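Quick look at the format.
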Amino acid sequence: MNEERRAARLKEAVLASFHEPAPSVEARLREFGARDWSRAKYWLDVSGLALYFLARIEAMALLACLPRSVISQLQTNLKENRQRTEALLSEAVEITHALRALNIECAVLKGITFPSESVPDPALRNQMDIDLLIRKADLRATEKCLARFGYALAAVGERTWEFKAGPCGTSSLKNLYQERPERALEVHLESQQLQVGRGDRLARSEWRLMQSCWLAALDPADIFVLQGQHLFKHMCSEYTRASWVLEFWRHICGRRNDTGFWGQVESLAMEQPGAAMAVGAAVLLASLIFGQCAPAELAGWSVDKLPAGVCLWIQLYGRRVLISGRPGSKLYLLLRKELNIGADAGRTELRRLLVPLHWPPKITKAGLNESRFERTRRFWIQTRFAARRLHFHVSQGLVFAVESTRWQRRNGGLPQ
């Protein structure tokens, strides 16, 4: 068995560990030695599964299946990540309370607010930043408030403003689980289109007690819909973390018999354009990777209504995308093409994404009184990043060219 196939088998074993019984998982893991795990460490980290995997095999009493050095490293990472998660939660609490003191309605989004059904222990989740939801009218006041916490505006999108604090370009895999001097926060603007039914998401938000801290968070049904939308958004982009799929699958399993909850989720999804498809695609991918999970009250209006081409893409490429050797692929362009059939603007966008004609964004920023060494280091970090992006576009462009032909052949007989 060549190294590439062996690496794929190890990744499959990790994914299987979350839904197969202990004897089966043990038989899979016994195949691999220290060298295999050393090669898989990068994927475990960037997929977000490393600490979830540690907790899972510990619960099944299978720690002996892994080299002692790997277990030791994972345990160190867990200790560091617990400290970082506590710091992240503490800052989120301080910021939301400061905003509420200014009569600015806000809510924390995504991972840090996921319920225990989805994330049993927040310290097992590798979260990079804080996401806040506010109304557009409060944007300038929010910017001033964030400045008190050291944040400065770094980028502006259509509905998202990105803020940074601390020195840029200091993060790497070496300090992935550590509390970092570089911090990021995204401010999301509530859409006026969602102000229907019971009001917008902020009107439905609530205070939740998390690790002895009160945090402004979305309504549980809103959290689930947003979780599905977030996962589908990344399925339509370069990289999808396997941990996001696992968290979504666990969320479904934990609520499987809660018919009232699924009724609320359906009602909310139907109010938002594209939400039903996003949730359906996320459910199908989660079921493919970790096993059937969706009750009829969820599948009937989501998975069962998916276009045939979307289902085919998930079945052909969903697992491949999650266990790819290096993060990112251009296979998502086939999915985007399927979602933009007959649209000239869509074809133009696909060409731009396939062969970008611009330099990659800056990931470093000059500091005050920057020394020659710091300037050289910053230049080296940016150059390495540009080289990696160039390699990605060339290598994955070739993969896309090959798969595009196969996709047309396989997809040709499906009803549109």
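Next, a different chain entirely:
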Amino acid sequence: MGWVGFCTGCCKVLGVTTSRLSAVAKFAGVSEATVSRVLRGKPGVSQVTRDAVLTALDVFGFARPEPVRSERARLIGLVVPDLSNPIFPAFAEVIGVSLIQRGLVPVLCTRTSDGVSEAHYIEMLLAQQVGGIVFVGSSYADAGPAAIKQLTERRLPIVLINAADENLGVARICVDDTGAAEQALAHLAGLGHERIGLILGPVGHVPSARKLAGFAKFWEERGETRWRRWVDHTVFTVEGGRGAANRLLAAGCTGLVCASDALALGAVRAVRKQGLEVPDDISVVGFDDSTFMGVTDPPLTTVRQPVRAMAGAAVLSLLSQLEGRPAASEEVLFDPELIVRSTTGPCPVPA
């Protein structure tokens, strides 16, 4: 069958009338024959012209036909829980630069206070025929069964970094949370602290659960049975850290290990509110080593995530899937690093 302008075949692929397709050609500033070549994925059309036609299709709300849907593969969704926690912008920056260097375009999606969630973003990203999605600090499982079904059916390349829940069968890049907790605890125990509290995120949050496992192992190996009363779950905010720290200080803790730097800053605030000093009276350890933690007052001792290495591994996993190779079935773990600054010191001697 011959193809001239917007032939019947093109109309069937797009599910719209010839007259409306003519509007696409007019909007793009090209002939109908040129649009036809783009729709069929034929050579001889410059990238600038091809992009103009595809943009016109998007503007008019027409689905891209199969021959050219791969054009959207250069768009990659990057989903993060929020931008207020500096660790997420840190990951987004490194991943974004790496994608751009490889000719891919990151599309940043973040939850908003008015209720735009992972489910909404997945729906929008799928409508744009993105080539893949990287989730940082969240999970595509949060979007619900319907979204998971769509992602599975489309076999869309997906990479999860520090996922909030378990996701078997998906490429996963994680920091060793268990090891991170053990590093922080060993540091404080070496300074003489015997009652060390642990401030975690919500119950069920996988990275927090793994830190709790390291916490439990540390104390049980030492025959300490009181450790459960030294654990508090809260939300990942400065205010959450402040409230949890108050509860753990009331339990007699002299050292606090926190599951994020924001929680640690809240803990420092709680200590000062009680008229105590960090680290003279209470030692505090954060997690992430996010931006500016080296210039807080006092500079925060924290467990650093290897952001650049983890982001690089995520991009390589995504590229591998884009090239048709299956996602790695095993989780890839990265070692954290304890960064000792000025919020930890020797356990105070009882008066």
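Residues 1-16 have pLDDT under 50 and may be disordered.

See the schema section for token definitions.
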